[in-house]
Write a structure and sequence with these properties.
The chain contains 23 helices and six strands. The chain is globular and about 80 Å long. Helix content is about 65%, strand content about 5%. By secondary structure, it is mainly alpha-helical. α1 runs antiparallel to α7, α8 packs parallel to α19 (about 380-405) and α12 packs antiparallel against α17. The protein starts with a helix and ends with a helix. It has two domains: about 1-25 and about 105-405, no CATH class; about 420-530, no CATH class. Strands 1-3-2-4-6-5 form a six-stranded mixed β-sheet.
Length: about 525
Protein backbone atom coordinates (compact mmCIF):
# COMPACT_ATOMS: atom_id res chain seq x y z
CA UNK A 1 0.00 0.00 0.00
CA UNK A 2 2.83 2.42 0.82
CA UNK A 3 4.58 1.76 -2.49
CA UNK A 4 1.32 2.31 -4.34
CA UNK A 5 0.75 5.58 -2.47
CA UNK A 6 4.23 6.84 -3.35
CA UNK A 7 3.66 5.89 -7.00
CA UNK A 8 0.32 7.71 -7.00
CA UNK A 9 1.98 10.76 -5.45
CA UNK A 10 4.55 10.75 -8.25
CA UNK A 11 1.76 10.61 -10.84
CA UNK A 12 0.02 13.51 -9.11
CA UNK A 13 3.22 15.57 -9.02
CA UNK A 14 3.80 15.03 -12.75
CA UNK A 15 0.16 15.87 -13.49
CA UNK A 16 0.49 19.01 -11.38
CA UNK A 17 3.48 20.20 -13.39
CA UNK A 18 1.65 19.58 -16.66
CA UNK A 19 -1.50 21.32 -15.37
CA UNK A 20 0.49 24.44 -14.51
CA UNK A 21 2.05 24.83 -17.96
CA UNK A 22 -0.36 23.19 -20.44
CA UNK A 23 -2.19 25.65 -22.73
CA UNK A 24 -0.97 28.45 -20.54
CA UNK A 25 -2.18 31.10 -22.96
CA UNK A 26 -5.63 29.66 -23.62
CA UNK A 27 -7.61 31.19 -20.77
CA UNK A 28 -8.60 34.82 -21.12
CA UNK A 29 -6.10 37.30 -19.72
CA UNK A 30 -8.75 38.54 -17.34
CA UNK A 31 -9.27 41.75 -15.38
CA UNK A 32 -6.99 41.05 -12.41
CA UNK A 33 -4.17 39.95 -14.71
CA UNK A 34 -4.69 43.09 -16.78
CA UNK A 35 -4.14 45.09 -13.59
CA UNK A 36 -0.86 43.19 -13.17
CA UNK A 37 0.15 44.22 -16.70
CA UNK A 38 -0.85 47.80 -15.89
CA UNK A 39 1.34 47.86 -12.78
CA UNK A 40 4.27 46.24 -14.58
CA UNK A 41 3.91 49.00 -17.19
CA UNK A 42 4.12 51.58 -14.42
CA UNK A 43 0.69 53.00 -15.27
CA UNK A 44 -1.33 54.66 -12.53
CA UNK A 45 -5.12 54.78 -12.36
CA UNK A 46 -4.90 58.44 -13.33
CA UNK A 47 -3.08 57.42 -16.51
CA UNK A 48 -5.81 54.88 -17.30
CA UNK A 49 -8.62 57.37 -16.67
CA UNK A 50 -7.00 59.85 -19.05
CA UNK A 51 -7.27 57.26 -21.84
CA UNK A 52 -11.08 57.30 -21.62
CA UNK A 53 -11.33 60.68 -23.32
CA UNK A 54 -13.88 60.07 -26.08
CA UNK A 55 -11.36 59.63 -28.88
CA UNK A 56 -11.47 56.70 -31.30
CA UNK A 57 -8.29 54.66 -31.15
CA UNK A 58 -7.15 51.42 -32.80
CA UNK A 59 -7.08 48.43 -30.48
CA UNK A 60 -3.30 48.11 -30.83
CA UNK A 61 -2.87 51.57 -29.29
CA UNK A 62 -5.12 50.70 -26.36
CA UNK A 63 -3.29 47.41 -25.81
CA UNK A 64 0.13 49.07 -26.00
CA UNK A 65 -0.84 51.16 -22.99
CA UNK A 66 -0.37 48.06 -20.78
CA UNK A 67 2.16 46.34 -23.02
CA UNK A 68 5.26 48.37 -22.28
CA UNK A 69 7.15 47.21 -19.16
CA UNK A 70 8.51 50.08 -17.09
CA UNK A 71 11.54 50.36 -14.86
CA UNK A 72 11.42 49.34 -11.18
CA UNK A 73 11.04 52.92 -9.85
CA UNK A 74 7.91 53.50 -11.97
CA UNK A 75 6.41 50.17 -10.90
CA UNK A 76 7.01 50.88 -7.22
CA UNK A 77 5.63 54.42 -7.57
CA UNK A 78 2.45 53.22 -9.34
CA UNK A 79 1.76 50.62 -6.66
CA UNK A 80 2.49 53.03 -3.82
CA UNK A 81 0.15 55.59 -5.38
CA UNK A 82 -2.83 53.37 -6.19
CA UNK A 83 -2.52 49.99 -4.50
CA UNK A 84 -0.25 50.01 -1.47
CA UNK A 85 -2.08 46.86 -0.29
CA UNK A 86 -0.09 45.15 -3.08
CA UNK A 87 3.63 45.45 -2.24
CA UNK A 88 6.04 45.35 -5.19
CA UNK A 89 7.96 42.06 -4.85
CA UNK A 90 5.87 39.97 -7.25
CA UNK A 91 5.55 42.79 -9.77
CA UNK A 92 9.29 43.44 -9.84
CA UNK A 93 10.03 39.75 -10.43
CA UNK A 94 7.31 39.65 -13.09
CA UNK A 95 8.91 42.68 -14.74
CA UNK A 96 12.15 40.76 -15.05
CA UNK A 97 10.39 37.78 -16.62
CA UNK A 98 8.38 39.72 -19.22
CA UNK A 99 11.43 41.82 -19.97
CA UNK A 100 13.03 38.64 -21.29
CA UNK A 101 10.02 36.69 -22.59
CA UNK A 102 7.75 39.43 -23.92
CA UNK A 103 4.30 40.54 -22.82
CA UNK A 104 2.08 37.75 -24.12
CA UNK A 105 -0.36 36.05 -21.75
CA UNK A 106 1.99 33.06 -21.63
CA UNK A 107 4.97 35.23 -20.71
CA UNK A 108 3.05 36.84 -17.84
CA UNK A 109 1.94 33.42 -16.55
CA UNK A 110 5.27 31.58 -16.75
CA UNK A 111 6.39 32.99 -13.40
CA UNK A 112 3.27 31.87 -11.45
CA UNK A 113 3.46 28.45 -13.13
CA UNK A 114 7.11 28.05 -12.15
CA UNK A 115 6.28 29.18 -8.62
CA UNK A 116 3.54 26.55 -8.58
CA UNK A 117 6.03 23.82 -9.42
CA UNK A 118 8.34 25.11 -6.70
CA UNK A 119 5.38 24.92 -4.33
CA UNK A 120 5.10 21.17 -4.94
CA UNK A 121 8.71 20.69 -3.82
CA UNK A 122 8.22 22.96 -0.81
CA UNK A 123 5.12 20.99 0.15
CA UNK A 124 7.25 17.82 0.22
CA UNK A 125 9.83 19.50 2.48
CA UNK A 126 7.21 20.86 4.86
CA UNK A 127 5.43 17.50 4.93
CA UNK A 128 8.67 15.83 6.03
CA UNK A 129 9.19 18.46 8.72
CA UNK A 130 5.66 18.17 10.07
CA UNK A 131 4.80 14.49 9.76
CA UNK A 132 8.22 12.79 9.69
CA UNK A 133 7.14 10.11 7.18
CA UNK A 134 7.69 9.85 3.43
CA UNK A 135 4.09 8.80 2.90
CA UNK A 136 2.62 11.90 4.53
CA UNK A 137 5.14 14.17 2.79
CA UNK A 138 4.27 12.57 -0.57
CA UNK A 139 0.56 13.05 0.08
CA UNK A 140 1.13 16.72 0.97
CA UNK A 141 3.09 17.31 -2.24
CA UNK A 142 0.45 15.47 -4.29
CA UNK A 143 -2.48 17.41 -2.84
CA UNK A 144 -0.76 20.71 -3.54
CA UNK A 145 0.19 19.48 -7.03
CA UNK A 146 -3.35 18.64 -8.19
CA UNK A 147 -5.49 20.66 -5.77
CA UNK A 148 -7.67 22.87 -8.02
CA UNK A 149 -7.20 25.86 -5.73
CA UNK A 150 -3.43 25.70 -6.16
CA UNK A 151 -3.57 24.89 -9.88
CA UNK A 152 -5.87 27.86 -10.57
CA UNK A 153 -3.62 30.42 -8.92
CA UNK A 154 -0.50 28.89 -10.47
CA UNK A 155 -1.94 29.74 -13.90
CA UNK A 156 -2.78 33.39 -13.17
CA UNK A 157 -0.48 36.39 -13.37
CA UNK A 158 -1.13 37.33 -9.77
CA UNK A 159 0.90 37.11 -6.57
CA UNK A 160 -1.05 34.40 -4.76
CA UNK A 161 1.18 31.58 -6.01
CA UNK A 162 4.15 33.46 -4.60
CA UNK A 163 2.28 33.80 -1.31
CA UNK A 164 1.81 30.02 -1.14
CA UNK A 165 5.51 29.46 -1.79
CA UNK A 166 6.81 32.00 0.69
CA UNK A 167 4.39 30.68 3.33
CA UNK A 168 5.56 27.09 2.84
CA UNK A 169 9.22 28.15 2.78
CA UNK A 170 8.80 30.28 5.91
CA UNK A 171 7.16 27.33 7.70
CA UNK A 172 10.08 25.08 6.76
CA UNK A 173 12.62 27.70 7.84
CA UNK A 174 10.83 28.26 11.15
CA UNK A 175 10.80 24.55 11.97
CA UNK A 176 14.46 24.23 11.01
CA UNK A 177 15.26 27.15 13.31
CA UNK A 178 13.26 25.51 16.09
CA UNK A 179 15.39 22.37 15.70
CA UNK A 180 18.61 24.39 16.11
CA UNK A 181 17.63 27.65 17.82
CA UNK A 182 21.28 28.64 18.36
CA UNK A 183 21.89 28.77 14.57
CA UNK A 184 21.98 32.41 13.46
CA UNK A 185 22.02 31.26 9.82
CA UNK A 186 18.66 29.52 10.20
CA UNK A 187 17.09 32.54 11.83
CA UNK A 188 18.49 34.75 9.08
CA UNK A 189 16.84 32.51 6.50
CA UNK A 190 13.54 32.78 8.34
CA UNK A 191 13.93 36.56 8.59
CA UNK A 192 14.56 36.87 4.84
CA UNK A 193 11.50 34.77 4.04
CA UNK A 194 9.36 36.75 6.48
CA UNK A 195 10.44 39.96 4.74
CA UNK A 196 9.68 38.43 1.36
CA UNK A 197 6.26 37.37 2.61
CA UNK A 198 5.42 40.88 3.80
CA UNK A 199 6.58 42.36 0.50
CA UNK A 200 4.34 39.87 -1.28
CA UNK A 201 1.25 40.90 0.68
CA UNK A 202 0.63 42.50 4.08
CA UNK A 203 -1.65 39.51 4.77
CA UNK A 204 1.54 37.60 5.50
CA UNK A 205 1.47 39.46 8.80
CA UNK A 206 -1.34 37.10 9.79
CA UNK A 207 1.03 34.19 9.16
CA UNK A 208 3.56 35.78 11.51
CA UNK A 209 0.85 36.17 14.17
CA UNK A 210 0.09 32.48 13.75
CA UNK A 211 3.79 31.71 14.19
CA UNK A 212 3.61 33.31 17.64
CA UNK A 213 1.11 30.62 18.60
CA UNK A 214 3.40 28.02 17.03
CA UNK A 215 6.25 29.30 19.18
CA UNK A 216 4.13 28.99 22.32
CA UNK A 217 2.73 25.51 21.71
CA UNK A 218 5.39 23.67 19.73
CA UNK A 219 7.31 21.07 21.74
CA UNK A 220 10.73 21.99 23.10
CA UNK A 221 12.27 24.76 25.24
CA UNK A 222 10.80 28.11 24.12
CA UNK A 223 13.26 30.61 25.63
CA UNK A 224 16.07 30.47 23.03
CA UNK A 225 13.51 30.06 20.24
CA UNK A 226 11.67 33.15 21.44
CA UNK A 227 14.81 35.30 21.29
CA UNK A 228 15.65 34.20 17.74
CA UNK A 229 12.05 34.51 16.57
CA UNK A 230 11.61 37.98 18.07
CA UNK A 231 14.82 39.25 16.49
CA UNK A 232 13.97 37.80 13.07
CA UNK A 233 10.44 39.23 13.06
CA UNK A 234 11.64 42.62 14.31
CA UNK A 235 14.14 42.89 11.46
CA UNK A 236 11.51 41.77 8.93
CA UNK A 237 9.03 44.36 10.18
CA UNK A 238 11.71 47.05 10.10
CA UNK A 239 12.50 46.15 6.51
CA UNK A 240 8.81 46.39 5.67
CA UNK A 241 8.28 49.67 7.55
CA UNK A 242 8.67 51.93 4.49
CA UNK A 243 5.83 50.16 2.74
CA UNK A 244 3.72 50.12 5.90
CA UNK A 245 4.08 53.91 6.05
CA UNK A 246 3.00 54.20 2.40
CA UNK A 247 -0.07 52.08 3.13
CA UNK A 248 -0.97 54.17 6.17
CA UNK A 249 -0.66 57.36 4.14
CA UNK A 250 -3.03 55.95 1.52
CA UNK A 251 -5.72 55.81 4.21
CA UNK A 252 -9.15 55.75 2.65
CA UNK A 253 -7.57 55.15 -0.74
CA UNK A 254 -7.02 51.51 0.18
CA UNK A 255 -10.60 51.17 1.39
CA UNK A 256 -11.83 52.74 -1.83
CA UNK A 257 -10.01 50.09 -3.87
CA UNK A 258 -11.76 47.42 -1.81
CA UNK A 259 -15.21 49.02 -1.82
CA UNK A 260 -16.57 46.15 -3.94
CA UNK A 261 -16.21 43.85 -0.89
CA UNK A 262 -18.02 46.20 1.50
CA UNK A 263 -21.29 44.30 1.35
CA UNK A 264 -22.30 42.03 4.22
CA UNK A 265 -23.32 38.48 3.36
CA UNK A 266 -25.89 36.48 5.32
CA UNK A 267 -24.50 33.65 7.43
CA UNK A 268 -25.95 31.01 5.14
CA UNK A 269 -24.07 32.43 2.16
CA UNK A 270 -20.85 32.76 4.16
CA UNK A 271 -21.00 29.07 5.11
CA UNK A 272 -21.74 28.12 1.50
CA UNK A 273 -18.74 30.15 0.31
CA UNK A 274 -16.48 28.47 2.85
CA UNK A 275 -17.73 25.07 1.73
CA UNK A 276 -17.01 26.02 -1.88
CA UNK A 277 -13.47 27.14 -0.99
CA UNK A 278 -12.72 24.00 1.02
CA UNK A 279 -14.20 21.84 -1.72
CA UNK A 280 -11.85 23.47 -4.23
CA UNK A 281 -8.94 21.86 -2.39
CA UNK A 282 -9.97 18.65 -4.12
CA UNK A 283 -12.68 19.30 -6.70
CA UNK A 284 -13.74 22.27 -8.80
CA UNK A 285 -16.33 21.05 -11.29
CA UNK A 286 -19.56 21.58 -9.39
CA UNK A 287 -20.54 24.31 -11.86
CA UNK A 288 -20.87 21.66 -14.59
CA UNK A 289 -24.09 20.45 -12.98
CA UNK A 290 -25.73 21.17 -9.62
CA UNK A 291 -25.65 17.47 -8.72
CA UNK A 292 -21.85 17.64 -8.54
CA UNK A 293 -22.07 20.10 -5.65
CA UNK A 294 -22.37 17.03 -3.43
CA UNK A 295 -18.94 15.88 -4.60
CA UNK A 296 -17.41 19.24 -3.71
CA UNK A 297 -19.18 19.12 -0.34
CA UNK A 298 -17.64 15.70 0.34
CA UNK A 299 -14.12 17.06 -0.19
CA UNK A 300 -14.93 20.06 2.00
CA UNK A 301 -16.14 17.69 4.71
CA UNK A 302 -12.88 15.74 4.55
CA UNK A 303 -10.92 18.96 5.12
CA UNK A 304 -13.11 19.89 8.10
CA UNK A 305 -12.73 16.41 9.59
CA UNK A 306 -8.97 16.62 9.10
CA UNK A 307 -8.82 19.88 11.04
CA UNK A 308 -10.95 18.44 13.83
CA UNK A 309 -8.76 15.33 13.99
CA UNK A 310 -5.64 17.48 14.09
CA UNK A 311 -7.09 19.50 16.95
CA UNK A 312 -7.96 16.32 18.84
CA UNK A 313 -4.41 15.03 18.37
CA UNK A 314 -2.76 18.32 19.33
CA UNK A 315 -1.70 17.12 22.78
CA UNK A 316 0.01 13.94 21.57
CA UNK A 317 3.79 14.17 21.06
CA UNK A 318 3.61 12.91 17.46
CA UNK A 319 1.11 15.58 16.35
CA UNK A 320 1.83 18.52 18.61
CA UNK A 321 4.34 20.04 16.18
CA UNK A 322 1.97 19.84 13.20
CA UNK A 323 -1.00 21.13 15.20
CA UNK A 324 1.01 24.04 16.60
CA UNK A 325 1.88 25.16 13.05
CA UNK A 326 -1.20 24.31 10.99
CA UNK A 327 -4.07 25.24 13.28
CA UNK A 328 -2.93 28.88 13.75
CA UNK A 329 -2.29 29.05 10.00
CA UNK A 330 -6.00 28.34 9.51
CA UNK A 331 -7.56 30.04 12.53
CA UNK A 332 -5.74 33.39 12.60
CA UNK A 333 -6.62 34.67 9.09
CA UNK A 334 -10.14 33.29 9.32
CA UNK A 335 -10.73 34.98 12.69
CA UNK A 336 -9.25 38.25 11.42
CA UNK A 337 -11.50 38.43 8.37
CA UNK A 338 -14.60 37.37 10.26
CA UNK A 339 -13.95 40.15 12.79
CA UNK A 340 -13.18 42.65 10.03
CA UNK A 341 -16.38 41.72 8.18
CA UNK A 342 -18.42 42.18 11.35
CA UNK A 343 -16.95 45.65 11.92
CA UNK A 344 -17.02 46.86 8.31
CA UNK A 345 -20.09 44.93 7.17
CA UNK A 346 -18.06 43.31 4.41
CA UNK A 347 -17.43 39.80 3.07
CA UNK A 348 -13.65 39.43 2.91
CA UNK A 349 -13.87 36.14 4.82
CA UNK A 350 -15.67 34.55 1.87
CA UNK A 351 -13.02 35.43 -0.76
CA UNK A 352 -10.72 32.43 -1.29
CA UNK A 353 -7.62 34.37 -2.31
CA UNK A 354 -7.64 36.23 1.01
CA UNK A 355 -7.76 32.86 2.75
CA UNK A 356 -4.82 31.43 0.79
CA UNK A 357 -2.75 30.63 3.87
CA UNK A 358 -5.76 29.21 5.74
CA UNK A 359 -6.64 26.92 2.84
CA UNK A 360 -3.00 25.85 2.61
CA UNK A 361 -3.10 24.88 6.28
CA UNK A 362 -6.32 22.94 5.73
CA UNK A 363 -4.76 21.06 2.81
CA UNK A 364 -1.80 20.04 4.96
CA UNK A 365 -4.10 18.90 7.74
CA UNK A 366 -5.84 16.70 5.18
CA UNK A 367 -2.49 15.37 3.98
CA UNK A 368 -1.48 14.57 7.55
CA UNK A 369 -4.67 12.64 8.21
CA UNK A 370 -4.39 10.63 4.98
CA UNK A 371 -0.65 10.08 5.46
CA UNK A 372 -1.11 8.75 8.98
CA UNK A 373 -3.82 6.44 7.69
CA UNK A 374 -1.43 5.01 5.11
CA UNK A 375 0.95 4.08 7.95
CA UNK A 376 -1.75 2.65 10.23
CA UNK A 377 -1.54 -0.88 11.58
CA UNK A 378 -5.06 -1.86 10.55
CA UNK A 379 -5.56 -2.94 6.98
CA UNK A 380 -8.97 -1.32 6.58
CA UNK A 381 -7.61 2.04 7.76
CA UNK A 382 -4.79 1.87 5.21
CA UNK A 383 -7.26 0.94 2.49
CA UNK A 384 -9.60 3.81 3.41
CA UNK A 385 -6.71 6.29 3.47
CA UNK A 386 -5.49 5.12 0.07
CA UNK A 387 -9.01 5.40 -1.36
CA UNK A 388 -9.30 8.96 -0.05
CA UNK A 389 -5.89 9.82 -1.49
CA UNK A 390 -6.81 8.34 -4.87
CA UNK A 391 -10.09 10.28 -4.85
CA UNK A 392 -8.25 13.57 -4.27
CA UNK A 393 -5.78 12.85 -7.05
CA UNK A 394 -8.44 11.73 -9.53
CA UNK A 395 -10.75 14.65 -8.78
CA UNK A 396 -7.90 17.14 -8.98
CA UNK A 397 -6.68 15.82 -12.32
CA UNK A 398 -10.23 15.84 -13.72
CA UNK A 399 -10.78 19.41 -12.54
CA UNK A 400 -7.47 20.54 -14.03
CA UNK A 401 -8.17 18.84 -17.36
CA UNK A 402 -11.45 20.72 -17.80
CA UNK A 403 -10.17 24.07 -16.57
CA UNK A 404 -6.97 23.96 -18.61
CA UNK A 405 -9.03 23.49 -21.78
CA UNK A 406 -11.40 26.38 -20.99
CA UNK A 407 -11.11 29.91 -22.31
CA UNK A 408 -12.83 31.36 -19.26
CA UNK A 409 -11.89 31.34 -15.59
CA UNK A 410 -14.57 29.82 -13.39
CA UNK A 411 -17.22 29.47 -16.15
CA UNK A 412 -19.99 30.07 -13.62
CA UNK A 413 -18.60 33.56 -12.96
CA UNK A 414 -20.51 36.67 -13.88
CA UNK A 415 -17.90 38.17 -16.20
CA UNK A 416 -18.30 38.14 -19.96
CA UNK A 417 -16.42 35.46 -21.97
CA UNK A 418 -14.05 37.95 -23.59
CA UNK A 419 -12.55 35.80 -26.35
CA UNK A 420 -15.95 34.61 -27.48
CA UNK A 421 -17.17 38.22 -27.47
CA UNK A 422 -14.18 39.24 -29.58
CA UNK A 423 -15.07 36.58 -32.16
CA UNK A 424 -18.59 38.00 -32.32
CA UNK A 425 -17.25 41.52 -32.82
CA UNK A 426 -14.62 40.49 -35.37
CA UNK A 427 -17.26 38.80 -37.53
CA UNK A 428 -18.79 42.22 -38.26
CA UNK A 429 -17.58 44.49 -41.02
CA UNK A 430 -15.70 47.53 -39.68
CA UNK A 431 -17.00 47.32 -36.10
CA UNK A 432 -16.66 50.12 -33.60
CA UNK A 433 -16.24 48.94 -29.99
CA UNK A 434 -17.54 51.36 -27.39
CA UNK A 435 -16.43 50.89 -23.76
CA UNK A 436 -17.97 53.21 -21.22
CA UNK A 437 -16.38 53.55 -17.80
CA UNK A 438 -12.64 53.22 -17.14
CA UNK A 439 -11.95 49.58 -16.32
CA UNK A 440 -9.55 46.76 -17.21
CA UNK A 441 -12.19 45.45 -19.61
CA UNK A 442 -11.05 47.77 -22.40
CA UNK A 443 -7.56 46.28 -22.16
CA UNK A 444 -8.92 42.73 -21.99
CA UNK A 445 -10.73 43.31 -25.27
CA UNK A 446 -7.82 45.15 -26.88
CA UNK A 447 -5.48 42.22 -26.22
CA UNK A 448 -7.63 39.93 -28.38
CA UNK A 449 -9.14 42.28 -30.96
CA UNK A 450 -7.38 42.72 -34.32
CA UNK A 451 -5.01 45.67 -33.99
CA UNK A 452 -6.89 47.90 -36.44
CA UNK A 453 -10.28 47.46 -34.74
CA UNK A 454 -11.53 50.89 -33.68
CA UNK A 455 -12.32 51.47 -30.03
CA UNK A 456 -14.12 54.41 -28.44
CA UNK A 457 -13.33 54.76 -24.73
CA UNK A 458 -15.70 56.95 -22.74
CA UNK A 459 -15.65 58.15 -19.16
CA UNK A 460 -18.64 56.82 -17.21
CA UNK A 461 -20.00 60.35 -16.78
CA UNK A 462 -19.59 61.32 -20.42
CA UNK A 463 -22.74 61.21 -22.56
CA UNK A 464 -22.61 59.32 -25.81
CA UNK A 465 -21.21 61.36 -28.71
CA UNK A 466 -22.64 61.05 -32.19
CA UNK A 467 -21.73 57.64 -33.54
CA UNK A 468 -21.18 56.74 -37.18
CA UNK A 469 -24.12 54.96 -38.80
CA UNK A 470 -22.41 51.59 -38.89
CA UNK A 471 -22.47 48.51 -36.74
CA UNK A 472 -21.17 49.24 -33.26
CA UNK A 473 -20.72 47.15 -30.15
CA UNK A 474 -21.14 48.67 -26.73
CA UNK A 475 -19.68 47.00 -23.66
CA UNK A 476 -21.48 47.97 -20.49
CA UNK A 477 -20.76 47.34 -16.84
CA UNK A 478 -23.05 47.94 -13.86
CA UNK A 479 -24.89 50.08 -13.17
CA UNK A 480 -26.50 49.34 -16.55
CA UNK A 481 -28.35 52.62 -16.66
CA UNK A 482 -26.84 54.52 -19.56
CA UNK A 483 -29.20 55.18 -22.41
CA UNK A 484 -28.02 54.20 -25.89
CA UNK A 485 -26.91 57.03 -28.18
CA UNK A 486 -29.54 58.89 -30.11
CA UNK A 487 -30.86 56.95 -33.06
CA UNK A 488 -29.71 53.55 -31.77
CA UNK A 489 -31.25 50.61 -29.97
CA UNK A 490 -29.46 47.93 -27.99
CA UNK A 491 -29.60 44.19 -28.53
CA UNK A 492 -27.97 41.85 -26.01
CA UNK A 493 -25.60 39.57 -27.92
CA UNK A 494 -23.42 38.44 -25.02
CA UNK A 495 -22.11 35.09 -26.27
CA UNK A 496 -22.39 31.87 -24.34
CA UNK A 497 -19.30 30.13 -23.05
CA UNK A 498 -17.62 28.51 -26.05
CA UNK A 499 -15.00 26.63 -24.05
CA UNK A 500 -14.51 22.91 -23.62
CA UNK A 501 -16.66 23.17 -20.52
CA UNK A 502 -19.61 24.17 -22.70
CA UNK A 503 -19.19 20.91 -24.62
CA UNK A 504 -19.14 18.90 -21.42
CA UNK A 505 -22.09 20.76 -20.01
CA UNK A 506 -24.18 20.44 -23.18
CA UNK A 507 -27.75 21.32 -22.39
CA UNK A 508 -27.40 21.02 -18.63
CA UNK A 509 -27.71 24.72 -17.99
CA UNK A 510 -27.36 28.22 -19.38
CA UNK A 511 -24.54 30.53 -18.49
CA UNK A 512 -25.39 33.00 -15.73
CA UNK A 513 -26.18 36.55 -16.80
CA UNK A 514 -22.99 38.54 -17.03
CA UNK A 515 -22.25 41.59 -14.99
CA UNK A 516 -20.58 42.84 -18.16
CA UNK A 517 -22.83 42.85 -21.19
CA UNK A 518 -22.02 43.09 -24.88
CA UNK A 519 -24.69 45.07 -26.72
CA UNK A 520 -25.05 45.53 -30.43
CA UNK A 521 -26.02 49.11 -31.25
CA UNK A 522 -28.48 48.98 -34.12
CA UNK A 523 -29.81 52.11 -35.85
CA UNK A 524 -33.52 52.25 -35.16
CA UNK A 525 -34.38 52.89 -38.77
CA UNK A 526 -32.24 50.01 -39.96
CA UNK A 527 -33.11 47.44 -37.31
CA UNK A 528 -34.96 45.15 -39.70
CA UNK A 529 -32.15 45.21 -42.24
CA UNK A 530 -29.54 44.54 -39.52
CA UNK A 531 -31.53 41.55 -38.29
CA UNK A 532 -31.48 40.13 -41.81
Amino acid sequence: MRAAALALALVAACAGVVARFAWLGRATFFADETVTAQRVSGRTDRDVNALFDGRIRPAREVHSFVDDPAGPPAIVAALATDEPQHPPLFYLIERGVVGVGGTSAVAFRVLPAALGVLGIALAWLLGLQLFRTREAAAVAAALVAVGPFFVEYARQAREFGLLVDVTLAACVALLWAFDRPASALRWCAFCALASAGLYTTPLFGLVLVGFVATLCFAPGPPRMRAAGFAAAVAVALAAFAPWMIATARAGNGVDARLAWAMVAYPVRLVVAKWAFALGALGFDLEYVHPALAGVAAAFAAVAVVALVVLGARATTPQWRRAAALLLPLVIVPLAYFVFRDAVQRAHFATIPRYLTTALTGAQFATAGMIGSGLSAARTWVRAAAFAAFAAFVAAGIASAAVQVASEDWWPNHEDMPVQSAVRTIDAAAHPLVVVRGASPLAFELARYLPGDTEMLLLDARTPFPRLPKRLSYYVEQPPASAEPPAGFEREDVTPRDASALGVLRGGLGQRARSRTTLWRLVPRAGRARAAQ
